[in-house]
Each structure stands twice: as C-alpha cells, then as structure tokens.
Specification:
Layout (H helix, E strand, L loop, with lengths): L3 E8 L4 E9 L2 E8 L5 E6 L3 H17 L3 E2 L13 H4 L2 H6 L4 H16 L5 H11 L12 H17 L3 H13 L13 H8 L5 E3 H4 L3 E3 L9 H5 L1
Antiparallel strand pairs: 1-2, 1-5, 2-3, 3-4, 6-7
Helix pairs in contact: 4-5, 5-7
Length: 230
C-alpha cells in the first residue's frame, strides 16, 4: 500500500521549517526540520489504520494552526535564518498586536532572549505577556493555553536566573512598565505578583498554578520560632 503523505512549510522571516506526515497502514512517519536539510524522522505505530490517520490529522492541524501551509517538497530554497531578535525591537514588542502573524515573531524572540537576556527588550516583552488577558483572547493564536504557558515560563525564567544583578535589572524594568496608577491584577499578572511578594505563603494560585492568584492580607506569618513565641 502506498504511503499517504502531506508536506507543510512555515517561512516567515524568522524561521524556515518543514513538517511532513505520512501514513502507511497503522504506522505514522513524521519528518521535520529546517528547509534544505533532511530533518529528523519519528515513527509511531498505532493499533489500527484508522487510528493512524486520526493521529496524523491531529498533528497536521496543530501545525496549520501555527501558520504552516501545504507546499511541495524541494521547491523552497534553503535560506539563511534571520534571528528573531533581529526582527523585533522595543517599539515592536510594546505595540505589535497579539495576533497570529505577530505572535510567531514575539514568541520566537522571547525564546532567544531567554538564552541571551538583555535588560530592555526582554523585560518589556515579559511585561507585555504579564499584562495580557487570557479569557479575552479572540484570535486563533495565541490560544488561552499558550498564554498561560508563556506567563508560567516567564515566571520560571526569573525564578531560575542565577545572576542577582541581572534579575534585579529585569525585575525592575518589568515593574516600571506598569502605568503609574495601574493596580496589580492578580488574575493576570503572575510574574509581577511573584516579583513583589516572592514566596510569601499569603500568595496562592488556583487551578494548579494556572489560574487567578490570591493575596490573603489577613494572615501574618512569623518565620522564626523566636518570633512566633514573642
């Protein structure tokens, strides 16, 4: 039986990638990588041919939702990849709408800035993510789940940053990005809340660290046995 094959590409200035899915009987073959390379191949065998086709369709939908389109293998030339951070600047980070075409650039830039942090664009991007609504997102991408993930990822990045001076500079810039009279919205601003309140036991978060945060202002925790006995 001949394999059924679908080939997709994503070429948006910051990345030039392909994603190919083929099925043969109950086996799914997935090949992906940068255009112009052989890429990486994964093989998954399902219980039946029908399950294999369903699995393949699901994987293809995930990619088309991210902007991949059907193409013909070998027609697109290998290109030099432009760094995502070359495609965005401070003004772009502050003003670009959170919509599919711009989101890919912002997300790619964030990943690169995590690996090589700066004290201007990265804090502005984290502040933008931190203030972003979740339930109000209307575009197909970013999804609500993706925005929750990015907020958690930014918070985790700061938690694990070992350079104290760099942490102070980035955290300061995130807080300074708030307007003068902005009230902290604990439903959304998980990063700012953790910068301000740290590991305080008065601060809790619903839905397994994926929901609204709550600050209990009525409780006072004394950290040492001596303080508690006083």
């Amino acid at each position: 039986m001949a394999a059924e094959k679908t080939y997709l590409e994503l070429s948006d200035g910051t990345s030039h990638k392909f994603y190919e899915v083929s099925t043969q009987a109950a086996t799914v073959y997935i090949r992906y990588g940068r255009i112009g390379t052989d890429g990486t191949t994964q093989v998954k065998t399902l219980a039946s041919e029908a399950q294999a086709k369903d699995f393949a369709a699901k994987k293809l939908k995930e990619k088309t939702d991210k902007g991949y389109t059907v193409a013909k293998a070998g027609e697109t030339e290998k290109r030099k990849v432009v760094k995502a951070t070359d495609a965005v600047d401070l003004e772009y980070v502050k003003s670009a709408p959170l919509a599919p075409n711009h989101w890919q650039k912002l997300k790619a830039a964030y990943k690169q800035l995590e690996a090589a942090p700066d004290t201007e664009v990265l804090p502005a991007l984290i502040a933008r993510l931190d203030k972003s609504g979740i339930d109000t997102l209307k575009e197909k991408y970013p999804t609500r789940a993706t925005m929750r993930y990015m907020k958690r990822r930014a918070r985790r990045f700061l938690r694990t940053l070992k350079d104290d001076a760099l942490y102070f500079e980035i955290a300061s810039q995130i807080l300074l990005a708030h307007e003068k009279h902005d009230a902290l919205d604990l439903r959304l601003q998980w990063v700012s809340a953790e910068i301000l309140f740290g590991a305080s036991r008065r601060l809790s978060q619903a839905a397994h660290a994926q929901g609204a945060m709550h600050l209990d202002k009525t409780k006072v925790y004394l950290r040492t046995p001596e303080a508690r006995k006083a």
